[in-house]
Design goal:
15% strand; rod-shaped; 8 helices; alpha+beta; 9 strands; Beta Polymerase, domain 2
Length: 354
């Protein structure tokens, strides 16, 4: 039986706690990086086996374990055995379609949330699931990709006089959460630039390409909101938690992360309403443009209908038509042709139809 599924529906029918990776496989093998530190020392190790982490389980230092790549099921089975992690938690870690949430267990806290990465050229969002396991002196961070997300955190750890080196594991968990949530502000900047660009072209150059961009952004914001809205509940539950793994001082910092998340979520809701309004403006603009074209065509039709009527009469092949023998009939007819459009144009302008 394959251990990877592209969608959650393909996992239907399997027993609860069955370890099957759900989602895109970015790395077939997982890499383990350990940062072990206290206020005096920092050591970085690249771990080859989960059992090499056992000595740090009961140490007096803070150990941060970063596991990148979620497709190695053997590693997660071993991790569950060594650190007594519930099978349902492991199942949630390797299933990358989770909504943000926080679960409390006797010896650890489990948190999962999404990292959002915005394209520089166009408003397109890439999603990465991150899971955190907070123990008394260890923090496990599980990532789908190998990237530089935590470079700034590692730089702070290398600073010997930094606050982070003197704090406990729960403060490290706060810093990781804060790093991910602060990354959402790039999404806000991208939305700001995108909406400004759309507004400039909305009235000047409305067309199918612009409509496609608006529809794509609207669809993208639905997934963004789906990823961010549960984050409010998760951080609120984390802030209210009375777990002994979270100190009172850390609760204050978690409240700050919660405030940042609320700002981003409210901003995304505002941009969603703004883009919906842009779609309505686009449709109104196209409709108004069509109305203007139809108005011009209607004016031309109205002018030429009486002229066509007159030419139709004089195009009939009757022998005894009195006007045909009048010496001034031709110039008089041209005078009529010119007068009718002029009178109609004056009438249209007077009625403000033009």
């Amino acid at each position: 039986m394959p251990e990877t599924r592209s969608s959650a529906s393909e996992k239907a029918g399997l027993p609860a706690g069955e370890l099957v990776h759900v989602g895109e496989v970015h790395h077939a093998e997982s890499s383990i990086t350990l940062l072990d530190y206290d206020k005096d020392d920092l050591h970085v190790h690249h771990i080859s086996s989960v059992r090499d982490l056992l000595p740090y389980k009961s140490s007096n230092t803070v150990s941060w374990v970063i596991i990148e790549g979620l497709a190695d099921m053997a590693l997660f089975r071993e991790l569950g055995e060594v650190f007594d992690i519930h099978p349902l938690v492991l199942e949630d870690i390797v299933n990358t379609h989770q909504r943000p949430k926080m679960d409390e267990y006797e010896d650890y806290l489990y948190m999962v949330l999404k990292r959002l990465e915005v394209s520089d050229t166009e408003f397109a969002v890439e999603y990465e699931q991150l899971s955190l396991l907070l123990f008394d002196n260890m923090l496990f961070t599980f990532k789908e990709k190998r990237d530089d997300l935590f470079v700034t955190v590692m730089t702070r750890l290398r600073a010997e006089k930094g606050r982070l080196r003197t704090q406990s594991t729960d403060y490290l968990a706060y810093v990781v959460l804060d790093t991910i949530v602060d990354g959402y502000f790039a999404l806000q900047d991208s939305l700001d630039a995108f909406t400004d660009d759309i507004e400039e072209n909305l009235f000047e150059r409305p067309g199918p390409e612009l409509l496609n961009r608006i529809q794509q952004a609207k669809r993208e914001l639905i997934f963004v909101r789906k990823s961010l809205s549960p984050l409010r509940e998760m951080l609120a539950a984390l802030e209210r938690s009375d777990s002994t793994l979270l100190s009172e001082k850390t609760h204050i910092y978690l409240r700050d992360v919660y405030d940042h998340a609320i700002r981003v979520i409210e901003s995304v809701d505002s941009y969603r309403d703004l883009i919906t309004g842009m779609l309505e403006i686009y449709l109104s603009s196209v409709s108004n443009r069509l109305n203007e074209i139809m108005k011009v065509l209607t004016v031309f039709s109205t002018i030429f209908i009486p002229l066509t009527f007159i030419t139709g009469i004089y195009g009939m092949n009757f022998q005894d038509m009195p006007e045909l023998k009048w010496p001034w009939s031709y110039p008089i007819l041209w005078l009529v042709f010119i007068s009718i459009p002029a009178i109609l144009l004056i009438y249209f302008r007077k009625r403000k139809w033009l």
